[in-house]
Amino acid sequence: MTAGRAARSGARQGLWGRLPALVLVLAGVAGAPALASTPAELFGAGNSAYEKGRFDEAAAAYETIVGYGVLDPRVLYNLGNAYYKMGRLGPAILQYERAVRLAPGDREARENLEFARGRIRDRVAEPEAPYPVKALQEVLDVVPTDTLSALFLALYLAVGGLVGACLLSRQAMRQRILIYAALAVGLCAAAAGGALAYRIRDTNATEAIVMQDRVDVRSGPAADNTVLFTVHEGTRVEVRNRLEGWYQVSLPNALSGWVPASAVEGV
User: Assuming Cys at both sites, which of 7, 53, 58, 175 could form a disulfide with 115, CB separation 3.0 to 4.6 Å?
Assistant: First the structure.
């Protein structure tokens, strides 16, 4: 990275969950010719090229790993760094966004994402949430969906167990204690369920990154429609609709219009 907030720009040296990644690759190419290089070899070659300043070679190696079907947040993080060094802001932000989705608690990826966003020419004001809501969102943003799923399931089963124990108990005092415990755990399960629903909605949101230097947003899905406004490389948009090579997109400030599908790429 360059001057400004000290974001991390080095290539990470180890594949995240290397064995599962290799298994995934082998499963995806069963019956196909052997791969020219394994993901681990490509990852090492990409890191070596990155350290030598050959960022285009590094990006090509990381892209090949992704092309094999390996979705590893460290690969995406390194790929984002390589694209940033090449001056390609849109692809860099796209890869950082993908890395953060796979590993919400990755502080370095989040820092580099925010650093790269600071270089975007568009300054789109987002609605400010009240402090308690914003604080809760920040906590949930770093908790993996799998963790929330496991917590919700454990609490749900605990409620069932407490209710069952209450039904089997013949002592009034014990039944009362079990009922209060079931209610308390049930409230926790409801909160965990709400948090899980938030994470699933956030993960499944159809967002895209502008990949071209300048894109005119039009009033309809055709090149002869009126230009409403312009967005620039790296800007994040939400995809609302698709129609014959065009996407209807919107910004956080509620501005909306149509852009060519080739101008953006989904996160």
Answer: 7
- 248 membership: H or E segment, kind and range: strand 246-250
Say if CB 265 and CB 94 are below 8 A apart: yes
**Token pair for residue 89?**
């802001």
Residue 130 makes CB contacts below 8 A (sequence gap 6+) with none
Digit-by-digit pLDDT tens for the chain (267 residues) are 433 344 566 777 665 433 333 333 433 444 333 455 889 999 999 999 999 999 999 999 999 999 999 889 999 999 999 999 999 999 999 999 999 988 888 999 999 999 999 999 887 766 665 667 667 767 777 777 888 899 999 999 999 999 999 888 888 898 999 999 999 999 999 998 988 887 777 666 689 999 999 999 999 999 999 999 999 999 999 999 999 899 999 998 889 999 999 999 998
112, 1 in Cβ contact below 8 A? yes
Residue 180 lies in a domain: yes
Shared domain for 167 and 248, answered yes or no, is no
The model's pTM: 0.68
- Are the beta carbons of 75 and 61 closer than 8 angstroms? no
CATH number at residue 235: 2.30.30.40
Total domains in the fold of the chain? 3
**Domain span at 140:** 131-204
